[in-house]
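Why predict the complex rather than its parts? Because the way molecules touch one another can change local conformation, and only a joint prediction can capture that. The input here totals 426 residues.
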Amino acid sequence: MPEYRLHCFAQSGNSYKAALMLELCGLDWEPVLVRYFDGATRAAEWRSDTNAMGEVPVLEHGGRKLTQSGVILTYLARRAGRFGPENEDEELDILRWMLFDNHKFTSYFATHRFMLSLAGKPSDPAVLSFMRGRVDAALGVVDTYLAKHTFLVGNRATIADLSLAGYMFYPNAETGYDLSLSHPNIHAWRQRLVALPGWKPPYDLMPSALPAT
Amino acid sequence: MPEYRLHCFAQSGNSYKAALMLELCGLDWEPVLVRYFDGATRAAEWRSDTNAMGEVPVLEHGGRKLTQSGVILTYLARRAGRFGPENEDEELDILRWMLFDNHKFTSYFATHRFMLSLAGKPSDPAVLSFMRGRVDAALGVVDTYLAKHTFLVGNRATIADLSLAGYMFYPNAETGYDLSLSHPNIHAWRQRLVALPGWKPPYDLMPSALPAT
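Output of the joint prediction:
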């Protein structure tokens, strides 16, 4: 059995953060499909045995079960010696961006995408519009920052970039954004991530949880 | 001048997380009022000089400017030797709860409260209702967890508790929740935090940013 097992599904950008890290570090890992759209994470045994927060991804390694993508990225950076901080200042700066990502960037971008293209039913237009406003504000903060920076922390890719980029590689038709037109600095930054040796898009790294139609 | 300066305002529960930590640790600190409701954090110089993310709190210490409440809590726990992890497992577990807090707990609870009682104009009922649904889900996760745990990590208060409790001490009229009735395990937990030596509520620790009427 591979050393690392990632409970995940391809539509989950939070899963992708961990899957891409495992792949870029060349670690021995396998994806384990979570049938999210069939309700797997809402089941009582998932909540009691695997993750009280009811979310994916979950990483199994050496008897541990780790949840929250930011925790998994931090853990893997230490084990692999890649994409982590070089000193405390960088460590705190990486944490700062990962918290912003969870609070305002991935949080709204992923929810907006889900409502737009994955929920399976139309969303309330007022809620969708509110959410898009939040996404625009967060994208604006990051695009402005990346106008003057190659990566988020230091001059190299770190787990901060892998966290914020979790939902940056899904098709425009899913996300509702063509970032190459709307946010050119974000687009240039994600192209720098694509250029990393071993990079793959989400649907190439993990199995789909959508039921066959 | 005090050793620590916290740019904050009393209505900000994210500021309160840092202010309460400073106070509980008995550190030499002073609050510096940010006139949020007059637009201080939207000003160009705030974004360029202080915080590209446009948020409070900001902690000044020894020439550093730290932003994101989770970063400030992590930094202070190390400096004060209080409320931090005792080993890597606890460190990762604290990070897990702080990320959940930023992603789903404080994030929605604070936004719902702002729309309900601080925005100064009525919110769209559909958006408010959507937000309340998200708050209810997050409160449910934490209340269920606290049915079997005294604190979030280990058997003592840590910065994970101080993070999630950031908005738990505002008046019911502001938050729209009477947690003593709706979520008894969360209520019992916050009472354990109130019992910590030196605890004070937000409006006693920081100046108000609301313009005098």
